[in-house]
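User: For a reading group we're discussing how well predicted structures match intuition. Take Alpha/beta hydrolase. Before you show the prediction, I'll give you the sequence so everyone sees exactly what went in.
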Amino acid sequence: MVATGQVIPHEVHGTGPARVLLLHNWFGDRTSYDRLRAHLNGDAFSYAFLDCRGYGEAKDLDGAFTMEEVAADALAVADHLGWETFSVVGHSMGGKAAQLMLLEAPRRVTSVIGISPVPASGFPLDDESRELFTGAARNPGNRRAIIEHTSGGRYDQAWLDAMVGHSVERSSATAFRAYLDSWSGVDFHERVRGNPARVLLVVGAHDPALGPEAMRATWLRWYPNAALEVLQDAGHYAPEETPEALAAVVERFLGR
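Assistant: Thanks. Here is the predicted 3D structure of Alpha/beta hydrolase, as structure tokens, for the group to look at:
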């Protein structure tokens, strides 16, 4: 791996023997998992929540802002915690970085859980979508349009305001823009094709971008031991939308 990892801001929830690292999505820092944490079993599991560079407590931390760097930093946190083996949960862009961790440290990563995860092939954008997504770095209205669309257009203005406000407050525009090129544009799916790792894909039925069909066309073709769970009441943001149902699915998989 070209990227050199460093120990980034993180916090551990729980004291259980099964260890899990969590990587957040493009729009939120580690606090985007706060609603999920309330439903996690800290006696059975230890969960480490990380802030990617440019987000949350790492908002002012410089970097290349690539998925390779996210993966290297997460492995550095695992080293810091003394975790030899662990599972990785990645939401959206975090799911792409989780796969790079699997490639870099296959004996350490015992399983991967992707929550509406970006596939290893990236997420190709047409010209109109690219303009919308690139503009989201500086324009909160663009972020709002993306969040509203990918959550299925089912939420009121107050919910959207809260999601957008949190995203703007907790992320650096520079990092936000740079990560887009890495998670959407880089394709390494041939490197993961046939990988025997245990993988769980958890997606929302109302996610038009990275829902069940997208998983069947990508992840499920490349990982022979992957399974798919669909949350009927969620869009793209299951940790915020359906945290209790998500926690149940995740811990059932981890406990097997």
